[in-house]
Amino acid sequence: MSESSRYTSPLDDVVEPSDFKFELPDSSEGVVFVVDNDRTSGTLNAGILKGVGYEVRQFATPQEALTELRRSSPTILVTDFAMGGLSGLELAQAAQEHDPDIAVILLTGSGDEATAQAALRMGVSDYIKKPPEPESLKRSVQRAFHKRAAEEHHRALVAWMKSELDRRAQAVREVTVSTLASLANALDMRSPHFQGHSKAVAMQAAAIAEALRCDDAEVEAVRVAGLLHDVGMMAVPDALVHKPESLTPEEFGVIRSHCDRGVEILEPMKHLGRSIRYVHEHHERWDGSGYPEGRKADEISLGGQIVGISEAWIAILESRAYRSGRSREEGLEILDAKKGLWFSNEVTEALRRADIGMI
Question: What is the largest CA-CA distance in the chain?
Answer without folding.
Answer: 69
